[in-house]
Amino acid sequence: MYSPRNNNSYGGASMLGGSRYHYEPLGYASSPAQASSLISKVMGLLAFSFIFASIGTFFGISIGLSFTASWMMALGGMVVLFALNFLIEKPGINLILLYLFTFLEGMSLAPLIGYLLGGEVGRTILTQAFLTTAITSLGLGAYAWTTKRDFSRLGDYLFFGVILLIVAGLVQFFFRAPLFVLIVSVVGIVIFSGYVLYYVQQAKYMADTTPNAIGLTASLFITVLNLFLYILQLLMLLTGNDRD
Asked: How confident is residue 9, by pLDDT bands cut at 50, 70 and 90?
């Protein structure tokens, strides 16, 4: 029987971190309205990114994408994300690469989502994970945008946290004790919640340019997707739906 735990539960290229594009900072003469304009663009791009990811997921389900093929899609997403980092300032091409990346990421999740959609409990878990992720992301984003607290120092700590998660993910293939999975899930949720705070606040200090918007969108897409996957993994464990 298909095991969701053997799926690419960490979003393929997602675990490698966000876009490595060097953002253009907001100039001293720029107004806060420019930052608001940038985040508005990002929200629009992010909405379309998740639409393309959803299309990719359901396309993968419709063709019966296998576990092996899903890893190939994840690897393809990594390649596209790498290309986006170099071509992010090319109009048109940057958007194509962004949406191709999100589409492939969605396809890489097809076996897991297809498995869960096959039963009533699985569909309930998916709904709960989606709603929890949406509420958490919006709440953290609003807080990061309005608070005077400085989250800029979180970046380095969060990056090392992601490295630990990658190592833990590899260990999880061989050591599947429920307590270990529980700890990894909770730590993953904390780390990617931190990334939501970090990226949203960073947007306040970025220039309102299309490359900035696309780079930030890629980073937030990766962050929110991984937050969803760790919440999903936690719910699957708590409901006993994380068995081989």
From this structure: very low
Q: How many other C-beta atoms lie within 10 A of the C-beta of residue 160?
A: 11
Range of the domain at 57: 26-238
105 within a domain of the structure (yes/no): yes
What's the confidence (pLDDT) of residue 4? Answer: 35
C-alpha span between 157 and 221 (Å, rounded)? 20
The verdict on residue 46 lying in a domain is yes
Asked whether the beta carbons of 204 and 145 are under 8 A apart, the reply is yes
pTM of the model: 0.86
Asked which of 77-81, 129-133, 148-152, 171-175 is least confident by mean pLDDT, the reply is 171-175
At which residue do the structure tokens 């609003």 appear?
A: 142
The three state secondary structure string of 127-167 is HHHHHHHHHHHHHHHHHHHHCCCCCCCHHHHHHHHHHHHHH
C-alpha span between 200 and 123 (Å, rounded)? 30
* Alpha-carbon distance values, 144 to 141, 192, 221 (Å): 5, 14, 17
* Token couple for 98: 């962004």
Number of domains in the chain: 1
Query: Comparing C-alpha atoms, which of 139, 132, 103, 157 is closest to residue 229?
Result: 132
| Domain-embedded: residue 10 | no
* Residue 16, pLDDT above cutoff 80: no
CA distances from 154 to 163, 168, 220 (A): 14, 21, 15
Question: Is the confidence at residue 17, as pLDDT, over 50?
Answer: no
> Is 9 inside a domain boundary?
no
Instruction: Give the tokens for residue 233.
Output: 């993994």
